[in-house]
């Protein structure tokens, strides 16, 4: 069996060495934060289930609370689950290529895997101080061999850091974050096909990479231009620079589903908010300011990694959800989770009426005029 194309140990070592420590808190304070986040994730689960009407598990495990190095290790485990089977397939295809066989090929492979591992580590160290929480879709199998369904993870030091930086009520902010992340758990546990669909699209995306060395070099040159341009304030990002036309098409589908998932999370955290998070409006406006801010370098890195794209996704996605729920109600909005065919396309997210016409069907005709006018 060939060596992995990414040295995952190097990725973990690099990431955990470079990541900045979180805010200074005592052991007792840290314990209290962990206990409260676990409790609030349970509380948020009930609110999300009731508000969305989604058929989620009744009593899930509480969130797993991690520090920054813990988040890096968890993500590397997830990457391995998704990427290692793909690496095998890509290497089988590559074994007949110009760098295959012979000692030179082995050396290129060994050096390459360490460089790639270090690059993954650098990327993760940057992300590890920003991410508040996530629903981890891809986990290694349990020791008993069962495939795990996913895990809700909250990054305690980042949550504490942001609530201190914004000067918001800690209890309210923690519950607000839990509402967003619990919505992701509801999506992936309440919609049986969604996880497999996302994994399938990711696999197709990675396997659609252009393995012709000339084309790869061309894409690397494009990527270098994008990096230079980003530091001059340009709009390009690396995600766009390294794609083949087939990958762009797949990425459109992936972007649409992730925009829906993120927007739904943002919509729910704000819509449930006023009932259970008294200071929700203050939190939202301060948090939005933080999303938009940052140093020039920070903005450049965000643009390069496509994180600015993700911010746009939150806004577009929550606007889509808000408009559809306002026009047709939550029950009809939930038709979005029916099958891959009922997911909105990229165009429909920008124009929710197109999705309503396609999936929900005619509505005004069915509503008596008095009701239609809100009487």
UniProtKB/TrEMBL annotation:
* InterPro entries, per database record: CHP03883_F420-assoc (IPR022454), Zinicin_2 (IPR018766), Zinicin_2_N (IPR042271)
Q: Which domain of life is it from?
A: Bacteria
Task: Name the chain's protein.
Answer: Coenzyme F420 biosynthesis-associated protein
Q: What is this organism's lineage? A: Bacteria, Bacillati, Actinomycetota, Actinomycetes, Streptosporangiales
